[in-house]
Design brief:
- It is a single chain.
- This protein is mostly beta strands.
- It is built from two helices and 19 strands.
- Strand 8 and strand 9 form a beta hairpin.
- The chain starts with 74 loop residues before the first strand and ends in an 11-residue tail after the last strand.
Length: 351
Amino acid sequence: MHRFQGRAATIGVAAMAGAALQLSGCTADPSSDTGNVASASSSERGTTTVTATAPATTTEPGSTSTPAGTGTGLTSVDPATFTAPQHPDAYTWNYSTGGQYRGLCVSGGDGVTCTGKPAASVPDLTEHFPGRPSAIELGRAGLRYTFVEGIPGGPGVLETGQQVQIGETRCSKPNSSTLECRYGSNSFTITGAGQTISTSGNVLAERDYSNHPRSGGGSSADSQSGSGSSSGQPSDYMGASGLVSGVRTSDGRLVTASTPSCDGRGILILDSYVEASSPQQGIADLLDKHSGAGFATPGQCPSLRASLNGARVYPIYLDYGHDMAALCQAKASRGGNARLLTQTADFSDPC
């Protein structure tokens, strides 16, 4: 979930881009997460998380005649325009390729991860968040399918006719139905209402973290930035194993972990907290950030991810019950990842 995660390459969804987006993280895309690719086809499409494996060297369908990120006549946008809220060293922006929902891109300064829908030939992710990939990561070593979850989109939008360069990565919107990003000889294109992903260049395996040489085995999330001193947090709501059942927000409210029913109800995941040194404070900070949201214990339902690299994951969410129209409307206006709480490990986005 590239949430601003500790290993993704661009922050990642969210997300938690669990092993995929560094800063974590992600949100704004219609699908969810996972997909190990033993070999990536030369025409990958998709609107969800991304995970990739085999190399692809042919420009895939959906790309324009102009190499990704090198279009002429485009207006350059100052990267500072897309500085991520509460994450000054990261950048996030929304984009549209003609569909009902906006896509999300996240960058940690050296690479980028954008949500989209991979081709059916792209394998499911099998590591930290098994399932379909919902994003594509681009970095110094190549491309990699991953996922983005719980990363709130910033206020910025990369509009048609604009381009932005962050480090060695350049992303552009040459026309209303196309987003292109390039880093060296590798690139990806996202096209059409379905936000179909196609790649050109070296596609890395799911377990290949070459884009993040310093990522090691640890995990982090955009949410981790909220882990400060836990002073003032109710110690009786912190179990012996470290499981958090209650936190106190900045306005003094005691918020206890919710236990939503796994009955097919829909929730909107606005953010995700990946367990760090001061989990109560980290969760409280995210609740302060997302007015009206609550949090659930990790893996409350099989369709909620319980952990990332051994660290618990707490979803920060809004419950819409069985009102799917309201859920999807909220996603369209607030971003985030929609999810149905069920008894199966289905991380797909119903919107």
